[in-house]
């Protein structure tokens, strides 16, 4: 099932919007990837107009917030 970044099907009052067109490629959203610690890996994703975006799969270093001291480690 495709994820879309468009307005919702329902109004705030609970009524439905009337669909005026089908799904479009430029409105397509993708599932999030949980980035893991390891050797740096990226994945290429084709975007609108043939543009290529890179998504991080694994990274070498991360910033972690210590909630008690409010500092990054």
Question: Given the C-alpha coordinates, what overall shape results?
Answer: flat
Oligomer: single chain
Radius of gyration: 19 Å
In terms of per-residue confidence, which ranges show pLDDT below 50 for 5 or more consecutive residues?
none
Alpha-carbon distance between the termini? 39 Å
Class based on secondary structure composition and strand pairing: mainly beta
Strand content: 25-35%
Domain tally? 1
The ordered H/E elements are: EEEEEEE
Number of helices: 0
**Number of DSSP strands?**
7
Fraction of helical residues: under 10%
Q: Main sheet, how many strands, which sense, barrel?
A: 3 strands, mixed
Overall average pLDDT:
89
Going across the biggest sheet, name each strand in turn: 3-5-4
Give an overview of the whole structure.
With 73 residues, the protein is mainly β. Helix content is 0%, strand content 33%. It is built from no helices and seven strands. It has strands at 3-4, 28-29, 36-37, 41-46, 52-59, 65-66, 71-72.
List keywords for this structure.
73 residues, mainly beta, two-stranded antiparallel ribbon, 3-stranded mixed sheet, 7 strands
Concise synopsis of the structure shown:
This protein has 73 residues and is mostly beta strands.
Secondary-structure topology with pairs:
Layout: E1 3-4, E2 28-29, E3 36-37, E4 41-46, E5 52-59, E6 65-66, E7 71-72
């Amino acid at each position: 099932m495709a994820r879309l970044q468009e307005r919702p099907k329902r109004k705030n009052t609970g009524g439905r919007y009337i669909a005026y067109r089908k799904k479009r490629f430029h409105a397509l959203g993708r599932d999030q990837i949980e980035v893991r610690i390891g050797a740096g890996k990226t994945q290429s994703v084709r975007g609108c107009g043939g543009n290529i975006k890179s998504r991080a799969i694994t990274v070498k270093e991360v910033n972690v917030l210590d909630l008690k001291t409010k500092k990054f480690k």
